[in-house]
Design a protein that fits this description.
This protein has helices at residues 14-23, 34-44, 63-69, 82-91, 124-130, 134-148, 163-172; strands spanning 53-56, 75-79, 98-102, 116-122, 149-158, 179-185, 189-194. It is of the alpha/beta class. One of its GO terms (biological process) is methylation.
Length: 199
């Protein structure tokens, strides 16, 4: 099968990201950097020694570095690309507050239930929605996000899609009994505080 790296459908494929990070090693932040999102992050998850955050589809973004610089002490990052995870582990070997793990967001069994205070997603759900079997794969991802969030945990999503479209996939997962707080912000940013109890 030909690899059309220019197609957004490739955004859901591991090979695409391995190829991209092999050829593009400079740090890049999708959609928003930490400084622009910090008011939102601080609102829902102020820095605290016990707070544990998960950044999904981290890539080579400097976002998590910004969080640590701001006082967050436990920021776990996952990505499907072994290329970028190896690079980020080498880059931040001297910063124990940052952890980088190769992992598929649709299968995070390495994490226990209710183990994170926040999950931060800058474009990862978008990438999955670009690919084939998007309904199935997005449901798998959302179920895993819900599973690893603590009760009253926060899922912060930055998306380029229309909010109603994204909400369809969130509710399609049939895992949240309600969304307690929905904040619409500029530049397609929104966040929700989720109940961690199943229907």
């Amino acid at each position: 099968m030909a690899r059309e790296t220019s197609s957004t459908q490739s955004y859901s494929e591991k090979w695409y990201w391995d190829d991209r990070y092999t050829n593009e090693s400079d740090s890049f932040d999708w959609y928003q950097n930490y400084s622009s999102l910090s008011p939102l992050i601080n609102l829902y998850l102020p820095p605290h020694p016990t707070h544990r955050s998960l950044v999904i589809g981290c890539g080579n973004s400097a976002f998590s570095e910004g969080m640590v610089d701001a006082g967050y002490e436990d920021v776990v990052n996952i990505d499907i690309s072994s290329v970028v995870i190896d690079a980020m582990n080498k880059k931040h070997s001297d910063r124990p507050q940052l952890k980088y793990l190769k992992m598929d967001v649709r299968d995070m069994k390495a994490f226990e239930d209710a183990s994170f205070d926040a999950v931060i997603d800058k474009g990862t759900l978008d990438s999955i929605l670009c690919g084939s079997n998007s309904r199935q794969h997005s449901t798998q991802m959302i179920e895993e996000v819900w599973r690893v969030l603590k009760d009253k945990g926060v899922y912060i999503l930055v998306t380029i899609f229309v909010v109603d479209y994204v909400l369809f996939y969130l509710f399609n997962a049939i895992i949240f009994d309600f969304i307690r707080d929905l904040s619409y912000l500029p530049d397609y940013i929104w966040s929700s505080q989720l109940s961690a109890s199943a229907v």
